[in-house]
Design a protein that fits this description.
Layout lengths: L15 E3 L9 E2 L1 H5 L10 E3 L3 H34 L7 H6 L2 H46 L4 H7 L6 E8 L3 E6 L5 E6 L4 E7 L2 E8 L6 E6 L5 E6 L4 E6 L5 E7 L6 E6 L5 E6 L4 E7 L2 E8 L6 E6 L5 E6 L1 E9 L6 E8 L4 E8 L2 E6 L4 E8 L4 E9 L19 E3 L4 E6 L2 E7 L5 E8 L5 E5 L5 E6 L4 E7 L2
Antiparallel strand pairs: 1-2, 1-3, 4-31, 5-6, 6-7, 7-8, 9-10, 10-11, 11-12, 13-14, 14-15, 15-16, 17-18, 18-19, 19-20, 21-22, 22-23, 23-24, 25-26, 26-27, 27-28, 29-30, 30-31
Length: 481
């Protein structure tokens, strides 16, 4: 590295690095700096710059070797415990019949006592395993946030400006929901009139490919699969339809899911795309699983007291947050062994909200109705429960139509690639950067002068597509940096 020392009068290239974690001096320095005794108190932590790679590789190898040994030891203990607990030690029929009444009594008492002891041990182990899993998830989230401090990610992730400018617009009837495929070349739009249109999307230009009329009422939500040529739609007609792209280059109905008793307001799909999570006017959340390419309802989650407005799945995909037109946020967690979702936490809020979103496993945001603050909830590592930690000021916009609610169908969206949170609030769409320090910084607010605005951002953060009831059309905005 031919870098000159940060002290101009030294005028020579740097040669040394300091790895003392408590050192407050500049960590990259030259021989003249060393002579000034700046790092004299911890010379054992001063090394040649050229040895950087070897130093960290050695430390990492030692840490991971210890980690691997611990994993092997835990596995050995689990195997031993399993063998001991599930060792039957049953008497044969002949041995059983040869026992006296007293011996038989003692044997049965011993077996029952052993059974109770096993259940108690398993309960204790499962509880501690759940705690360990949560701890590991927290550590993973912390590492993910810390990785944002690396020079490469910091340059990529922390945008100095966020400015989305209109590059195209077209008149359309009311669109409630928008979804994109994995590379944002296909856009699906769901209409208030109950129809669905499929467009080619290329550099901000739209070209219609197909119009579908299978739902009986308004389309409320859409999701385009990323791994397959399929998309799903949720409607006011209480149904979810799975569409598939066929050899005739048209989209056709593949399966219709009809267990909800109210309109389907929101849909979430996991990364493997074998689980759909839906929220409805019937106050229920349904978990649908794909088996042999056929969808069935696996579980129904209760607890909400009014129609569900938003749901979000965390990155580890073991927790669901949801809100409804009732001042509560519910958090469900999936049990490791049974794969059943159970209610983990109920958060009471002063005002109900329409939108929430996981940012990381340990951070989520919630937009309360008609509030000029975005609420941030963070996981408390001591209690393993979420609690509100911040109120972020956000714009509410200027509504030209009085006495209107915020409207549904524009879910919060976190763009991981650019660390941008998209959050509609009344008449404004607020675009915020989640920086490497875990802070939300508002970068742009778009005032549509109406709460009747719906839309979505492409997963790469390049385009923001919206429909509003003042312009009566789609507006396509592109990121300008």
């Amino acid at each position: 590295m031919n870098q000159v020392c940060s002290i101009p009068e030294h005028g020579v290239n740097v040669e040394f690095i300091c790895l003392n974690q408590y050192c407050r001096d500049f960590r990259i320095f030259c021989f003249k700096c060393l002579q000034s005794e700046k790092h004299n108190s911890h010379m054992k932590d001063v090394h040649k710059l050229k040895d950087y790679g070897r130093l960290f590789d050695n430390k990492s190898n030692t840490v991971f070797e210890d980690f691997e040994r611990n994993i092997e030891y835990v596995n050995t203990l689990f195997e031993w415990l399993r063998d001991e607990m599930f060792n039957n030690n049953h008497l044969s029929q002949e041995e059983f019949e040869d026992l006296s009444i007293e011996q038989l009594h003692d044997y049965l008492c011993s077996k029952l006592q052993m059974q109770s002891q096993k259940q108690s041990i398993l309960g204790t182990i499962n509880k501690n395993v759940d705690h360990l899993i949560q701890t590991l998830n927290n550590c993973i989230s912390d590492l993910e946030l810390s990785s944002l401090d690396s020079p490469g990610k910091k340059i990529k992730g922390e945008l100095s400006t966020i400015n989305y400018e209109v590059i195209n617009s077209t008149e359309e009837q009311q669109i409630n929901s928008i979804a994109f495929n994995f590379d944002s070349t296909v856009m699906v739009a769901g209409y208030e009139s109950s129809k669905i249109k499929v467009f080619d999307f290329n550099d901000g230009e739209l070209k219609i490919n197909q119009e579908i009329n299978l739902h009986k009422k308004s389309i409320y939500c859409l999701y385009h699969m990323k791994k397959t040529k399929e998309f799903i739609s949720g409607s006011c007609d209480k149904s979810i339809i799975v569409f598939q792209y066929s050899d005739d280059q048209q989209w056709h109905l593949k399966q219709q899911l009809e267990e909800h008793q109210g309109g389907v307001n929101c849909l979430v799909v996991n990364r493997e795309e074998d689980t759909i999570i839906s929220g409805s006017d019937d106050t229920l959340i349904k978990i649908w699983i794909r088996e042999n390419d056929y969808w069935t309802c696996h579980q129904t989650l209760i607890g909400h007291k009014n129609y569900i407005s938003s749901i979000s799945l965390n990155k580890t995909e073991n927790q669901i947050i949801s809100c409804s037109k009732h001042p509560q946020i519910l958090i469900h967690q999936q049990e490791t062994k049974s794969r059943i979702w159970v209610l983990l936490q109920t958060i009471n809020v002063t005002t109900w909200g329409r939108r929430l979103c996981f940012i990381t496993d340990s951070v989520f945001t919630f937009q309360a109705e008609k509030k000029e603050q975005l609420y941030v909830y963070e996981l408390n590592p001591k209690t393993n429960f979420f609690q509100k930690t911040k109120n972020i000021s956000v714009d509410i916009g200027t509504c030209k139509m009085k006495k209107r609610g915020c409207f549904w169908f524009f879910p919060q969206q976190f763009i991981t690639e650019k660390s941008i949170l998209v959050s509609k609030n009344e008449c404004s769409v607020n675009l915020m950067l989640f920086n490497q320090d875990g802070q939300f910084i508002k970068k742009q607010s778009i005032d549509y002068c109406t709460s009747g605005v719906f839309g979505r951002m492409t997963d790469d953060g390049q385009y923001l597509i919206t429909w509003d009831d003042i312009s009566r059309g789609l507006q396509i905005r592109q990121l300008k940096q």
